[in-house]
């Protein structure tokens, strides 16, 4: 019991707890965001399983360039437009934004609308372009 009464040991215990929390943070935050896919997996989902691509960027961003066959549904309008995005609620949906930061909110809205298989594109449009994949205007 003397170990816990010493202030130097308490500081070491606090340091260990904080560093452990910081190490676990990426895994915890990843699990709350939802599933993500990289550009290669997204391409496979689109080509092999007919995934629906939903671009949640603003209309001006969408007009500058978007994935082929992507449906525009700005994040603010997504809850009201979610029902008409795909005929089958079990179809895979890939949510796309500019960098992947806004996708978590869209995934939550689509899950609430009844869709079961929702992915976010890691890195968003920026990663898509970096991979040399096509955009359409």
UniProtKB/TrEMBL annotation:
<dbReference type="Pfam" id="PF00581">
    <property type="entry name" value="Rhodanese"/>
</dbReference>
<protein>
    <submittedName>
        <fullName>Rhodanese-like domain-containing protein</fullName>
        <ecNumber>2.8.1.-</ecNumber>
    </submittedName>
</protein>
<dbReference type="InterPro" id="IPR050229">
    <property type="entry name" value="GlpE_sulfurtransferase"/>
</dbReference>
<dbReference type="GO" id="GO:0016740">
    <property type="term" value="F:transferase activity"/>
</dbReference>
<dbReference type="InterPro" id="IPR036873">
    <property type="entry name" value="Rhodanese-like_dom_sf"/>
</dbReference>
<dbReference type="InterPro" id="IPR001763">
    <property type="entry name" value="Rhodanese-like_dom"/>
</dbReference>
<feature type="domain" description="Rhodanese">
    <location>
        <begin position="47"/>
        <end position="137"/>
    </location>
</feature>
<keyword id="KW-0808">Transferase</keyword>
């Amino acid at each position: 019991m003397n170990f816990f009464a010493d202030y130097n040991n308490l500081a070491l215990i606090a340091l260990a707890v904080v560093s452990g929390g910081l190490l676990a943070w990426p895994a915890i935050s990843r699990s709350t965001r939802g599933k993500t896919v990289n550009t290669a997996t997204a391409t496979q989902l689109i080509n092999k399983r007919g995934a629906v691509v939903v671009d949640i960027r603003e209309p001006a961003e969408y007009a500058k360039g978007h994935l082929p066959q992507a449906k525009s549904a700005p994040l603010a309008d997504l809850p009201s437009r979610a029902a008409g995005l795909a005929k089958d609620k079990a179809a895979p949906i890939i949510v796309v934004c500019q960098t992947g930061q806004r996708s978590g909110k869209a995934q939550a809205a689509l899950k609430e609308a009844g869709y079961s298989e929702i992915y976010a594109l890691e890195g968003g449009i920026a990663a898509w372009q970096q991979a040399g994949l096509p955009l359409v205007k």
